[in-house]
Amino acid sequence: MLQKPRSRGRPNSQAERERERDWGRGAAEEAPSTSRGAGSSQEARSASSQGSRRAEASPEVGPRSQQQLELKVAELVQFLLIKDQKKIPIKRTDILKHVIGDYKDIFPDLLKLAAERLEYVFGYKLVELEPKSNTYILINTLEPVEEDAEVRGDQGTPTTGLLMIVLGLIFMKGNTIKETEVWDFLRRLGVYPTKKHLVFGDPKKLITEEFVRQRYLEYRRIPHTDPVDYELQWGPRTNLETSKMKVLKFVAKVHNQDPKDWPAQYCEALADEEARARPETSGPAPSS
Prior knowledge:
The chain is mainly α and 288 residues long. It has helices at 13-25, 47-56, 66-83, 92-100, 107-122, 146-151, 160-172, 179-187, 203-213, 236-241, 244-254, 263-277, and strands spanning 90-91, 124-128, 135-140, 177-178, 217-221, 230-234. Helix 3 (66-83) packs across helix 5 (107-122) and helix 7 (160-172) crosses helix 11 (244-254).
């Protein structure tokens, strides 16, 4: 079984930048394929025999870094959480098409790690609907308390999980993100701006109109961009209903890391928590 790293020291600034970039872009650098032939001293021998051996063997895939594996598992977890929100069975073919890609050779390992994370972190058990059906469902194994439900994106509507992901993207990218970057990330989860989605209907309308109308998001055009681009920020309702710390915990759970592994965001979230706990003053302090 693949091992899951768990760094707990304060990461250096380079590692921090890498994690922010990977969450924001949602794309890990793919490892190159490295096919190896026979030994150099054997190159002159029987070209037809070597060709037949290569044809029989499956293509050799280059090694992936632990970070690449972690990002792929996190991507799979998010995909499963989104797909489950209408309680429609999740097809293996959809998982392979939208998430796994060139990682098919280790799909069982990735699925096992994603299942463990879903159960032990989010309280969902991934089960196959029927034997050999290649379709899966998530079973809620917890009775969530209010805060846990919020961190899991479990607010009783199918769109909350998507909203939590977008809020996480915005926060991890410095509280503002280009719309094009949001779609670059969501495409990897099978959510496209120009395609109707089984759960979300019209995803672009949902994010750029519904969430904006509900004041969860702010959506504005970026001046002097060609082609035209827009940016997204948290809206006032988000700041009332959740917090930077809760969203950071959601991001950390998806990536199987600690919120402190992102020092800049953690400090910002901590300052936000302290500001919320501070009593509001109605006027200047009385003079002694």
